[in-house]
Design a protein that fits this description.
Strand content: 5-15%
Structural class: alpha/beta
Helix content: 25-40%
Number of strands: 7
Strand order of the largest sheet: 4-3-5-6-7
Distance between the termini: 58 Å
Number of helices: 7
Length: about 200
């Protein structure tokens, strides 16, 4: 198309989203243009509302529209176990498995010194603060099974184990180099069951 008009700008905006290629962007653009007027209006309204109302939970750092988030506020969850994940989407993936009933902590990334991402760029300080209550008996490290995720897990284990808290790492079922968001429910459930203590 490349005429610089409104359609091109719409396609370009869709194509700038992660995981959306040029053909998918074009399909989405034409779908919205051919849809009834309320479809794009509802989409725009939902995006605007989410951007305004979604914030970080003051307890676990997950994305939420209430503070604390619904998981942190759920009295049926086990407050003695915290599952540490890299991103909010990892919480969603684990929750779909329905095999975990503890709490979460979202790091918002992994240690990656070559990119300038160190401990101060993650929510590690907030995690350690949560452990001061003495209520937590186990930390499950559910970072991705790649170089950065493994390095982050080892770093956290070395910080937390001296506090006398059991530190485990999800293991079986997740292939090396894989990401939690792409794992199916059964695989994640097995990975959670097969977690092992980190030395």
């Amino acid at each position: 198309m490349n005429n610089g008009g409104a359609i091109d700008r719409l396609v370009h905006q869709f194509a700038s989203l992660p995981g959306i290629g040029p053909k998918t962007a074009q399909r989405l653009a034409f779908y919205l243009l051919n849809a009834s007027p309320e479809v794009p209006e509802n989409l725009a309204s939902a995006i605007t509302e989410a951007k305004k109302s979604i914030k970080y939970c003051s307890v676990c750092s997950n994305l939420t529209d209430t503070d604390p988030c619904k998981i942190c506020g759920d009295v049926k969850r086990n407050p003695g176990v915290i599952c540490v994940v890299q991103e909010p989407k990892d919480v969603i993936a684990i929750e779909k498995s329905r095999g975990y009933k503890g709490l979460y902590h979202v790091l918002h990334g992994a240690l990656e010194p070559s990119e300038g991402i160190g401990p101060d760029n993650l929510t590690i300080r907030q995690l350690l603060k949560r452990l001061e209550s003495g209520q937590v008996t186990e930390i499950i490290l559910a970072t991705n099974s790649d170089v950065e995720g493994d390095a982050t897990a080892i770093y956290l284990a070395r910080l937390i184990k001296p506090l006398g808290i059991k530190v485990t790492r999800i293991a079986h079922g997740l292939p090396a180099g894989s990401y939690l968001e792409y794992a199916d429910q059964i695989t994640l459930s097995k990975a959670m069951e097969g977690r092992r203590e980190i030395d």
